[in-house]
């Protein structure tokens, strides 16, 4: 896809409200935005780009195509933006977390409806209330419903036809008094639906309807001298009053309102939402959203208003907030200064500020724990070895040879107490003949740090040599020849008793076997040994293959190595055609190699 021509594209964008979409080179939507004036908003991305933050610059650099949709009003732009963000989930937009794991209370659409809890919303199945960010509050409601009403808990299909046909029998819940037996026709549907209607009112925050119903029933029972029934209704009134007293209450004159407050820092926005019905806070949720492009609080608020209205089924026409979006919205947004609405705002702000502080403290504790665990080992190692600085960069050397064949060495690197495998190095011994561990150690240590000095790369904070005084002395000699002895601490670790040797000191240091610092040195030593052994095995394997090819008349070590390098193994060489071999070593040698392997097959 060709590079984005901002001037040409901008010329076709109108001065109208709408929604714009940016596409990348894969023609995927990477950002969706709304605007009161499309041309002004889109143009702002390509003017004074040096003033943009790092993420916005990255977004602009990836734009390859622009699409826009004109809409009648800013409110329509907000609605369309919300739908497109959910549909495309662009990587540079704020993506709201999926809260489907929060539970809902559902009143089912069926004869004799059930009151159940669900986590997946399917509006065809029933009427949903929630989500409940605090599940404890939800279960407290359900417990109250069980005490106030006799709602069935079974899954039977209680159609009038099934009940009339006598398909069902009452269960234990009927005998315990928790159900009136609608399955056998013992409770009229109208009576049952009246109870469901009251549960609906309670879940909507309207307690006046069930309270009045209970009072009417109590007075009616009292007039009939049915005092036990009257007492039962009175108990239900008290239960409802008790629930009401525990609920968060504001002045009923406030009416139905939503409260949404937002505060933010560079990384995230923190929000608190409260749904108020008839003077009660019937739902509340506090959450955070990771920022993408340094979005302003007003932009975030506009997006979240729609999300909260949809999620909590709010029909409030007024929103109390601490910020006002520069947007023509169909919801009346107020920032109260006094009165009951100001108390609601203060309560929401208190919640969101507490949540932000709690999040910051938790992150600080987690970061501190991660840092302290890493540094604790290094601090202990620094103290045990009496180093001048923390050994954040450690390099460890080991030699490997078996009966003097294929001598090799390895260096492993640990940074911040963890292996840094990209810095590992293998060495083939070049200047030493036979099994001379001391001379081999001197060679590889010298080669390693001569190269670092030549490249002007930083030296390690600690050098560890696998071996006792002999290997350590050889490594020290290499450092002295390079003029860096004394600039880098160096130690040797002897395997048998895990003794730590220092240059010029005949007495070893014994670190506590359970010490984390000794375990780190041992880990580096073992890793160097493993790395050296694996390289040595590979060298021996290749050496034996070369030796086998040298059995071919007219094929020397050099030609054998060329063949192995090209074909990667004896099997591939054996199965190759003369033409394929000739491309690598010429026709004459190819015939000899092919003849050799054919003869072996015959034998």
TrEMBL record:
Record has Cytoplasm as a keyword: yes
**What's an example of a GO molecular-function annotation for this chain?**
excinuclease ABC activity
Subcellular location as annotated: Cytoplasm
Q: What is its main location?
A: cytoplasm
Q: Which UniProt keywords apply?
A: Cytoplasm, DNA damage, DNA excision, DNA repair, Excision nuclease, SOS response
Q: Which PROSITE patterns does the annotation name?
A: GIY_YIG, UVRC
Can you give the residue ranges of the UvrC family homology region profile domain?
314-479
The protein's name in its UniProt record: UvrABC system protein C
Source organism per entry reads: Persicitalea jodogahamensis
Record lineage: Bacteria, Pseudomonadati, Bacteroidota, Cytophagia, Cytophagales
Tell me the name of the encoding gene.
uvrC
